[in-house]
Amino acid sequence: MKSFAVFLIAGMAFAGQLFYQTEASRVSADEASGPSIMLVDFQKALNEVAQGKKAMQELEAESKTRREALSKAEEELEKLRAELEKLAEELQNFQRNAAAGALSDEARGRAQRRQQEFMEKQMLFQQRLEAYGRAEQEAQEVLRQKEFQARTEIVSRLRSLVSEMGRKKDNVLILETNESGFLFASSFVDITDQVIQEYDKRHKVESAGSSRRRGR
Question: Backbone phi, then psi, for 183, in 5-degree steps?
């Protein structure tokens, strides 16, 4: 009986040692294989999350409004330019007639009035042209700033979300496909669609109809 107990204890010790060695080998193999690689495309996520789509729609709407205003200003400038050309041609005719000595006193009076009108419209044209340039520059700057702000805010939230998702997993490495340092991965999991779905769950976007109903 005593020898059997010794044999049993020895057997258990051997089995325990064998299990430990097997488990240690498995852990070492996992560590040697490295972390699981996951990829996320922030540009795709930015374009496809509901907030990103809404931001682009709002920017496009504002851009259209500003383009229409600029187009109207262009039409007014073109109309004024045509009037200036007509006045300039009329003044040239007055000058030719005056040089030929064929200009009556009444015609001289008209010529003076046309000259005054030409100078006033020329000044108005210059003022409107400068105003147009300022409006065009302002439109570009405002839209650029709004786009930058929207992109920065959404990408910041996306990065926080991806970091949170990564912390919930063991032994993972998450890379961004748009980063210049990323070249190649033979085995990876693309989590971009998961990120988009989770982002939209957390950041709801109201439809235009819902916003109007709530404002009533």
Answer: -115, -50
